[in-house]
Fold this protein.
Amino acid sequence: MGNKLSRKSKTRLGFLIYFVVVTIPMLVPPIINRLNTAEPFVGPFPFIIFCMLLFVLLICAGLFAMFEIEDKRGDLL
Amino acid sequence: MTSPWAVIIVVIYFVILGLVVAKWGKGKEKGLSEFAVAGRSAPWWLLMFTVLATWVIGSTYTATMGYAVMSGAIGIYMAIYTVIGLVIFYYIGPRIWVWGKVHNLYNLPDYIGRRYGDRRLAILVAIAGFAIGAPWQIMALKTFGYTTTALTYGALPEAAGMAIFATVIAIYCIYGGMRSVVVTDFFQGIICVVVVIGGIIAAIYLKFGGIGPMFQQVLAQSPEMLVIEDTKFWTSIIVASALGAYCWLEIFNRIFLARSVRDLKIIARGAPILGGGIYFLVGILGIGGSIIASVNADLAAAEGGFLTIFSEVGGPIMLAFAAIIIIAAEMSSIDSQLATGGVVLARNAVAEFKRGGLSEVQTVKLSRWIIGIWMVIVYFLSIGDLPALITFAIVTYEFLAAMFPTIIIGTLWKRGTAKACWASLAVGWIVCAILQIWPATQGWFGGWGAGITGAFFAVIVYFAVSLASPKDEKVEALFAEVEAYKEVR
């Protein structure tokens, strides 16, 4: 009954879920409407521009982590 | 006030670039594999910059910059779309690379022909890919002309600048094929990354006193620039751009250049932070430019804003660096398009119609002729006045997204069939055309753009027709090859 997901598939599915969770606030209009404000500033950045920068950094960090895990396990392909 | 220093610096830069290409721009091997995919031998550090070069094109520093100046925060959409596009690269790249290695594939139409077993579909993708890229090559040459004139303070006319760069690019593409492109992009990519990141941060500090002070000034003078005006349009433009990214022949072609799957994934890991970072910096510089009188006067001033700001903060030296960035980025995109497009037209269009096909030697020879002749055609088109060109380019961009299921879903899902591709392309393109011709109809679909709506219908049709079609044993075998492939490290 049912095929168990392989370790490689689980890792990729995990990253896909992470990617969707991080991406949704940046792309779904009702959510981005709530983030769409200049103030308060976060560091030197207006709020929405900080959110954009955070999105880029979170996705890049996720890709780095994904690569390290797959490379260590020999699951790159 | 004019100064010869800007021209002298640019000339020195291109002499050094010429020496680099002459030394390393041609491989020892001859043949189609060397000419089309640089012998599938590029390590990640060499290929990283050619991947970046195909994403961060010259219009980043003109059109994207101008968009941020005129429209504010929405101009940063390119950073978001680049990162999403490179996540797709991480997922699809390895298996396409394996199929390329096993079946000797060189480009997108090769892959489509192998994946779906349909030559006509491959020819359609080849012709569509070439046609979609053409207006961008014309705009690239126009950018060379504009930059040359700005750099020489009007001493050199635009037509002369276009002729110089068209000749140089055609020569090295014909001479070394894809290897010369990779070497050129690597050299220019390093210079660009260093100069863009360092230059933009320096310009922001010199002009505004820092990133925080810049945004505070924008908040005081033009607060509307610090929010996204239309969030639905923001989503549409990002999704449509990311879905259509791999329909560009030259972007897809990068996958086949890598030495190994590991090299490919290192690129997918590193390129997003550099590409996303560059687009982010250009976007915020554009937002800062929205409160500079010499930059925000009109669209032309906004598109020249990158050169203007660099010139204002650093004189001829910074102007020279800004010009080098724009020219290098534009060269790196047009050379990739030419080298890929030449091979695609020769191998996937002309050879398909010629009885008996073409040998590898004949294909390389014909590719060189196509590159040369096409560059001459592009030059003569560029010196003309083409007011509808940018409109045509943007319209074709919207149609790309409908190719997403054919190219991307078919890579990850073995049930996708050729019939599903034809049906999804027909429906996606028709929906996109209707929404483009009669924009009022976009209201029927919640106000979403033509590209994203066309892609939505294309995906539904692709799944429906594929599930209604029988399984294909050949495709099952193709997917099994990926599982069975063992990489030697």
